[in-house]
Specification:
Elements: H1 2-17, E1 24-27, E2 30-33, H2 38-43, H3 49-64, H4 83-89
Antiparallel strand pairs: 1-2
């Protein structure tokens, strides 16, 4: 019984720290994976050709952003900037309805 209790606690602890594999959105009668990488953004059916490039550019910016390196900020402070302003900067305001993005 003791082994089982330790094992259950270990599994619970593991589950608390496991990263999320992806986010999904239901649109047009289908479940779609929200793009989380440059490759996924370019192959996603959620966005048109121009939106894919804009979304890819947003992801490139976010992945390169280093809080301690102002040269990666592009004049923006992501600690205070709302996500809607970042969408506006990359001209994605009207194209991401129903898609959430966590940065």
């Amino acid at each position: 019984k003791q082994w089982y209790q330790r094992r259950v606690r270990g599994v619970t602890r593991y589950l608390e720290f496991k990263q999320v594999d992806g986010s999904y959105v239901y649109k047009g009668g289908k479940t779609h994976k929200v793009p989380g990488t440059e490759t996924e953004a370019l192959s996603s059916s959620l966005l048109g050709l121009f939106e894919k490039r804009r979304f890819r550019n947003l992801l490139v910016y976010v992945f390169k952003y280093d809080e301690k390196d102002p040269s990666t900020h592009d004049g923006l402070d992501l600690t205070t900037l709302p996500m809607s302003a970042l969408y506006e900067k990359y001209k994605l305001v009207n194209h991401l309805s129903g898609i959430s993005c966590c940065v």
